[in-house]
Design goal:
The chain is an alpha/beta fold and 210 residues long.
């Protein structure tokens, strides 16, 4: 009798569980904020952007931040000598020597202002030296009294003082001068391999053949 009661109790217990829903099959619930279709559309949009532009949004932003600042209308000039803050200054293209001096903190005490043409137009990579009063300024080989570099007499060091002329380019100039018997005009320097019109425009006011 007791076993029968226990059996009935167990049967009633399991029936109550089934009726209360514990025996239902499991349901899958989605808690994503976007529907599967919206997620697919977003993924396809990002994939298309990368395919067409070549960069992901993150890479594109990084490339813009790391974009070089060359050819942006600025020049770099090394100002040294009797100025308050010697060093490299960044100026707009076409700036004059006095602007470079101002960017370097102005003339220092004892500066020989008359020894420098402060109205001269500067070129990228140029060195502007402000001597002291009474200082003997050493004239480079091939440098004329007017401060121009003579293409027919300058040595490698003198040629390298020109904007855009490095060691290898100076050697090319000397080689051309030896083979051709000298320069007959300043424009002839464009016959030297590697010296294009853009380089000539930077140095044309700084060279001579006289």
């Amino acid at each position: 009798m007791r076993k029968t009661k226990c059996g009935l109790i167990l049967v009633c217990f399991w029936m109550s569980l089934i009726l209360s829903g514990c025996g239902r099959s499991k349901e899958i619930l989605y808690f994503d904020r976007e529907s599967p279709d919206e997620m697919y559309t977003q993924d396809m949009r990002e994939y298309t952007d990368v395919f067409l532009n070549g960069d992901s949004p993150e890479e594109e932003q990084k490339s813009r931040q790391e974009a070089p600042t060359e050819a942006d209308g600025r020049i770099y000039v090394h100002v040294c000598g009797r100025v308050c803050q010697p060093g490299v200054v960044i100026l707009p293209e076409g700036s004059r020597a006095w602007e470079a001096v101002e960017a370097a903190g102005g003339l220092a005490d004892g500066a020989w202002e008359a020894a420098v043409n402060l109205a001269s137009v500067l070129q990228d990579g140029e060195k502007l030296y402000i001597p002291a009063l009474g200082e003997v300024v050493v004239q480079q080989a091939g440098e004329a009294e007017n401060g121009l570099i003579n293409l027919n007499t300058a040595d490698a060091a003198g040629l390298q003082s020109l904007p855009g002329i490095g060691e290898s380019r100076a050697a090319d100039i000397l080689s051309y001068r030896e083979k051709s018997g000298g320069f007959r005009s300043v424009e002839e320097i464009m016959q030297v391999p590697g010296i294009k019109e853009s380089t000539f425009e930077k140095i044309r006011d700084k060279i001579t053949v006289d």
